[in-house]
Write a structure and sequence with these properties.
By secondary structure, the chain is α/β, with parallel strands linked by helices. The chain is built from 16 helices and 13 strands. Strands 3-2-1-4-5-6-7 form a seven-stranded parallel beta sheet, sandwiched between helices. The protein has a six-stranded parallel beta sheet with strand order 10-9-8-11-12-13, sandwiched between helices.
Length: 393
């Protein structure tokens, strides 16, 4: 197979971090990788990841289109025109789109330009926690993007089953399971010690006998941040040694209430907003427990990463999370939006160090056996090759 041009697309550059290692692998196997992304939204995002430098390092070529994540029909029409210009120039055999706005605009432009293979990669269900008209509109948008795609990838088995039954997709073969991989040589707890000067506990001057709860992700309503803050406030009344590390940024879309933002920034000296972090293994090494009371998820990558670092997890008993965590073995799954259940699960881990240790050990073994990054990359490559071969026959 000669050089096959392929476009990868995301709405904002910080999403690219999840493809680290994939593009060099594709380049070695005959693909010329192009990346399309919107602009960084904040200076903090720019500090987190410079897309031009990152794509160079990852053996890819970068193209920027100013994609707005909200509802903006006129801006979107302009973006589609920019998309079509880039597609005409590259002449890709495959366009592989990720994240909602990039997926919608990229799929429309790819259809207009008759790109032979169009892949929609679903990492999470946007409408899972929505209700009423918003839910119906988001469902219809998903059906349209899936219909325009040649193939649709989904990151977990529960997510694939949910789409088949909820959206009533009759052509089940169009929906392929492509699971995430976790590199356990990077997410390796043996790399770190409690005396590490870069350990976040040590940098913040937190006593070694403190219990640190961690969260990693976007600080928005749908990630269950309101419930997490309520649980933490309640637990703080009983346990004076607990701290909360928040690895992520406060976002404008699906925004938290002013009261929640104020508590995060000014609530007390036991709540620590760390921003987006590149060195996630070090973050996990600094906490005792990851808590992610999310309303919707595709797989729950941070849950599996924490498990790889031998940290137990408390999360929601929903699509995606049930694939990442084995309830009662590598963590605890609780009903969504149930603050009392979140408190009870966290409290069990605070009071039982042996349970923390056992669930952490179980978690690492499960990740090593089920979420191999080599198998994940190989699965994507094989899917591309099969789709290209099918077009030729």
């Amino acid at each position: 197979m000669g050089n096959v041009p392929i476009i990868y697309a995301v709405t904002v550059p910080k999403s690219l971090i999840y493809f680290t290692g994939l593009f060099p692998y594709l380049s070695k196997n005959g693909f010329t990788v192009h990346v399309i992304s919107g602009k960084n939204e904040t200076i903090a995002d720019e500090d987190f990841l410079d897309p031009k430098i990152w794509t160079q390092q990852q053996h890819a070529e970068y193209h920027e289109i100013d994609m707005y994540r909200g509802i903006a029909p006129w801006k979107d029409l302009s973006c589609i025109g920019n998309w079509r210009t880039i597609i005409k120039k590259i002449q890709p055999k495959i366009v592989h789109v990720h994240t909602p706005k990039a997926s919608l605009l990229g799929m429309l432009a790819s259809c207009m330009e008759r790109v032979p293979i169009r892949i929609y990669h679903i990492h999470g269900c946007r409408y899972y926690a929505s209700r009423g008209i918003a839910r119906l509109l988001l469902q219809q948008m998903e059906r349209c993007i899936i219909k325009m795609s040649t193939k649709t990838f989904l990151v977990s088995n529960s997510l694939r089953n949910y789409y088949i039954h909820e959206l009533k997709i009759s052509n089940e073969e169009k929906l392929a399971l492509v699971e995430n991989g976790i590199d356990c040589s990077i997410f390796d707890p043996d790399q770190f010690t409690s005396d590490d000067p870069e350990n976040f506990r040590n940098k913040l001057g937190i006593p070694k006998d403190s219990f640190v709860i961690g969260f990693a992700g976007r600080l928005v309503v749908d990630k269950g941040i309101n419930e997490l803050l309520l649980a933490f406030q309640e637990l703080s009344k009983k346990y004076s040694h607990i701290h909360l590390f928040l690895a992520g940024s406060i976002e404008k879309l699906n925004a938290l209430s002013p009261q929640a933002v104020d508590f995060i920034k000014n609530g007390n000296d036991h709540t620590h907003l760390l921003g987006y972090i590149r060195d996630m293994p070090r973050f996990y090494s600094s906490i005792d427990l990851l808590v992610s009371p999310t309303y919707r998820e595709g797989f729950g990558l941070t849950l599996a990463e924490a498990n790889a670092m031998m940290k137990p997890v408390v999360s929601s008993n929903i699509v995606g999370c049930v694939d990442a965590i084995e309830n009662g073995v590598t963590g605890m799954l609780v009903p969504v939006k149930d603050v009392k259940s979140i408190i009870a699960a966290i409290e069990r881990y605070i009071r039982d160090p042996e349970l923390r240790r056992q669930h952490g050990m179980n978690g690492r073994e499960r990740v090593k056996s089920m979420f191999s990054p080599a198998l994940a990359r190989e699965g994507i490559l094989n899917a591309y090759v099969n789709l290209l071969n099918a077009r030729e026959h």
